[in-house]
Amino acid sequence: MSTKATPEPVPLILAPKDVQELIRSKDSSSIRILDATWFMPNVQRDARKEFEQGPRIPNSSFWDVDKVATQKGEKDEKGNELNPLGLSHMMPTPKVFANAAGQHGITPDTHVIVYDTHGVFSSPRTAFTFHAFGHRAISILNGGLPAWIKNDFEVENGPPHQITPTNYPTPSLESTLIRSYDEMVANARMGARGQTVLDARPNGRFEGTAPEPRPGLSSGHIPNSTSLPATSLLDTNSISSDKSFTTLKNQTDLWRSISDTVGGMDELDKLRQASSAGESAVTNTCGSGMTAAILWLGLYQLGIQSSIYDESWTGYASRKESVIDKE
């Protein structure tokens, strides 16, 4: 039976002090904190191992974005391949999501707070996943673990504590939040009449002048898409001479960065108006569907609903290697 999670009015972005206050003021069973750290494929680091060693936020658990995902070989009820290219961290099926949420002790009423060790990088993808399955009681710790530590809040090390599983009912995926390859091709053919498509990768990869981090993958971009590097929505905060972390920009700076990209405040207002009925007004893409969620987060903060092309450039270029648009 398909059951939709109960929405709750919680902020999508929380400062470390706000999370600390929630932990102190609420019953611990009503909050679950997830570490959703993920590293680029060319970075030799193990997110799970680092979580298990610590430091980490007390009583948190590790949400593995590559395991809580649709794997190659999985099929839908009609026998169609759900991930024929075998891409990483593709949106999980409702059953996989529900099982993972239950294993993490989450119920539809749980306020889930997600963070990563970069600051803001991979945590928005997990927040988007919960959001896409109707779980609105989801927040991102702005600045992640580094900001938490910088505020001198408690951390723990060593083996994580055991979690008591729950029974999370199978939800429904809000399918309009996920775009397919065929939809992206059709949208590109519409030219200026198509939906706005924003690409979160660095501009060099978008333009085709810098290589992709995935071996053998061409650089370039989807026709009629626009470059909006995820880094343009983030502030960099120094910890030391060689260490830093990211936080989401304030609303004024988000307005500026996004409006400059889409053609000014009037165009931005049009996107807001198009979102007023709850419809997606923008599609976000990146290399693999990870940093596209940073764009989703920034747009959401401005009242703009958006979707993600889950396969992103990796899927698009793999399916259509001959199309490398360098306009």
From TrEMBL:
Residues 199-228 are annotated as: Disordered. PROSITE patterns: RHODANESE_3. GO terms for molecular function: thiosulfate-cyanide sulfurtransferase activity. GO terms for cellular component: mitochondrion. SUPFAM superfamilies: Rhodanese/Cell cycle control phosphatase (SSF52821). Keywords: Repeat, Transferase. Residues 27-157, 191-325 form the Rhodanese domain. Pfam families: Rhodanese. This is Rhodanese-like protein.
